[in-house]
């Protein structure tokens, strides 16, 4: 996530540039920023789901055995 943010913040000046040669650099900045956003969002959602499912299963197993749920 830190690498993505560093690349994203580095590409913002390319995306917002004006002046000589900006018409060649602007599409590159837009594609970098768009690609990073489109690849990072599903990754964040996937990791959150992947980490919460085993925890819910563990809590379900504890509740079916009659044990007390740990306070979180």
| pLDDT averaged residue by residue | 86
The beta-strand count equals 0
Order of secondary-structure elements:
HH
Give me the number of helical elements.
2
How would you characterize this protein structure?
With 72 residues, this protein is mainly alpha-helical. It is 81% helix and 0% strand. It is built from 2 helices and no strands. The chain has helices spanning 2-16, 22-64. The longest helix is centred in the middle third of the chain and has 43 residues, at 22-64. It starts with a helix and ends in an 8-residue tail after the last helix.
Explain the layout of strands and helices.
Layout (H helix, E strand, L loop, with lengths): L1 H15 L5 H43 L8
Task: Summarize the model shown.
81% of the residues lie in helices and 0% in strands. With 72 residues, the protein is mostly helical.
């Amino acid at each position: 996530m830190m690498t993505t943010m560093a690349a994203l913040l580095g590409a913002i000046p390319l995306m917002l540039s004006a002046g000589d040669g900006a018409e060649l650099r602007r599409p590159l900045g837009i594609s970098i920023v768009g690609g990073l956003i489109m690849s990072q969002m599903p990754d964040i959602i996937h990791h959150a789901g992947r980490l919460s499912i085993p925890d819910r299963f563990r809590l379900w197993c504890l509740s079916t055995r009659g044990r007390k749920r740990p306070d979180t």
